[in-house]
Amino acid sequence: MEHVRLDKWLWATRLFKTRSEASEACRASAVRQNGSIAKPSAKLRIGDTLVVRTKALTRTVFVLALTEKRVGAVRVPEFLEDRTPAPEFEAAREKRANARLFTTRGAGRPTKRDRREIERLLHPEDKEE
After folding, report:
1. 47, 61, 81, 108: which one has the fewest Cβ atoms less than 10 Å from its Cβ?
2. Contacts of 46 (CB under 8 A, 6+ apart)
3. What is the mean pLDDT of each run of 10 residues along the chain (129 residues)?
4. Structural domain boundaries of the chain?
5. Cα–Cα–Cα angle for 123, 126, 129, rounded to 5 degrees
6. Whole-structure pTM over 0.85, yes or no?
């Protein structure tokens, strides 16, 4: 195999959970191949350097081998060398910790208890019997 589609390789090496996520990241300019913005259909070759931006982390990887089929997590180091600087991982850990601090309890769909309290507030006359 001489080359492989970039989005397939990103998915196969578990940098993205789905191939469509990998394609979307390429379209959103979150993936750079050898310093330039890459399209999902870009031809990836051994020796290329990728800078991949995910939600909280920007990873720098060096391509060691090519594959189109998804590999197990144990085999990922055979296909890429992670050259992400250590401060980048620390910054991602910090972002996740801060996100937990600022999430509000009860965000989203009301629970059954919440719904009953809302009903009591909106219709107090129904409960006076």
Report:
1. 108
2. 63, 64, 65, 66
3. 93 95 95 95 96 90 96 95 90 82 73 89 74
4. 4-105
5. 150
6. no
